[in-house]
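thought: user wants a sequence for this fold. calling inverse folding tool.
action: design(structure=
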């Protein structure tokens, strides 16, 4: 069987983060690891469409990247480069089972979330290395220009190099101090998977599955951290809706129109159990509150029976813990159900989110409900212009045409 370019790209998306994590552990050098993995995929792009895939594409990538890196280290070591010599020895004899974090990818997330790095840079760098996300995709998640995000990643790598920050498993006592950044990374990986920033498909299954897998590992590692459980609950309750989020041909179905009988009952039950466990601990945080909001949605048999008053109250609580325009925008959706679309539109129009396509989509829906059809159509068109996801764009363009 021969692979097409999309097949190779799918392997890249699914395996890039694992390969980089393994190579960092083998080599102890983040730049060398990333370059080696990229070289390995370049070889795959050239060979696999003609020769067909190896029995284990992921293993082939790691082995090829390791061999490329060691060849480079040998060349550099011959020029008396002590760093290359040290890395070469490290690559030959790597201890296993080091520290409390056993998974390579989760280990690298904790490593990148070193307190010496700027919080935003920690998250951006880790998403680039482990999420396999492009700089443009990460910039969309941060709602910043691509050039700004690229500079954050460059500065983070320079800080690691210049400060001599080691790539090693943090001690158990250091894990709680890095938890906030680790949770942010996992949340953003899942967010990009739940609604892909670009491409033809609404959902990237690989990223959703990986984020949930890592969140489960994190809960096992830190069972007494309620925010870790809250994030896992939020992911599970959101992922439970996936079967109903699109039609058979991939078209987007908004939450109010979804057939809730298609939601994954097992994931709903597991997510709700985690939320109840968090409530008993009485140590609320942003991810737990978002999970509670998702749990309220999952309690309703249909959109009409949703307890919007409770959701609005939870958004008020969330705004106190994590204030920001995106939280305020989501709160406005609940406000529209409780106080009416006119009140919600006034709240939305006070937000500075003109570059965010969801902002225009929410405005469009509120304008439509107020009978302002022409303005609604224009807002839908603006929203469609600001998303690179084909499924979202098709949905928003159809709403514009029907307004």
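)
observation: tool returned 403 residues.
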């Amino acid at each position: 069987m021969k692979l097409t370019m999309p097949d190779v790209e799918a392997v890249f998306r699914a395996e890039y983060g694992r390969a980089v994590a393994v190579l960092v552990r083998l080599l102890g050098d983040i730049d060398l690891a990333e370059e080696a993995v990229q070289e390995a995929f370049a070889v795959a792009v050239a060979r696999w469409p003609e020769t067909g895939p190896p029995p284990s594409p992921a293993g082939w990538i790691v082995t090829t990247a390791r061999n490329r890196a060691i060849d480079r280290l040998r060349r550099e070591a011959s020029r008396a480069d002590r760093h290359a010599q040290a890395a070469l020895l490290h690559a030959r004899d790597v201890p296993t089972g080091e520290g409390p974090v056993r998974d390579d990818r989760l280990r690298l997330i904790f490593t990148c979330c070193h307190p010496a790095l700027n919080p935003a840079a920690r998250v951006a760098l880790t998403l680039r290395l482990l999420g396999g996300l492009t700089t443009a995709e990460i910039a969309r998640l941060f709602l910043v220009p691509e050039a700004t995000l690229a500079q954050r990643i460059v500065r983070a790598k320079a800080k690691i190099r210049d400060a001599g920050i080691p790539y090693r498993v943090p001690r158990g006592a250091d894990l709680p101090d890095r938890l906030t950044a680790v949770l942010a990374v996992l949340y953003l990986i899942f967010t990009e998977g739940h609604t892909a920033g670009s491409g033809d498909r609404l959902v990237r299954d690989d990223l959703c599955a990986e984020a949930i897998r890592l969140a489960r590992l994190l809960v096992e590692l830190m069972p007494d951290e309620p925010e870790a459980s809250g994030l896992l609950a939020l992911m599970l309750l959101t992922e439970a809706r996936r079967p109903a989020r699109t039609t058979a041909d991939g078209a987007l179905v908004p939450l109010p129109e979804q057939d809730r009988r298609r939601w994954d009952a097992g994931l709903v039950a597991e997510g709700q159990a985690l939320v109840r466990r968090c409530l008993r601990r009485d140590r609320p945080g942003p991810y737990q509150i978002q999970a509670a909001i998702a749990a309220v949605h999952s309690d309703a048999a249909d959109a009409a029976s949703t307890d919007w008053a409770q959701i609005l109250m939870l958004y008020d609580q969330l705004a106190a813990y994590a204030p920001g325009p995106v939280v305020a925008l989501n709160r406005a959706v609940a406000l529209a159900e409780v106080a009416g679309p006119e009140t919600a539109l006034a709240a939305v129009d006070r937000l500075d989110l003109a570059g965010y396509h969801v902002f225009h989509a929410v405005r469009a829906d509120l304008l439509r409900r107020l009978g302002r059809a022409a303005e609604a159509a224009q807002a839908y068109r603006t929203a469609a212009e600001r998303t690179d996801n084909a499924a979202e764009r098709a949905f928003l363009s159809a709403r514009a045409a029907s307004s």
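thought: summarizing for user.
answer: Here is the designed sequence. The chain has 20 helices and two strands.
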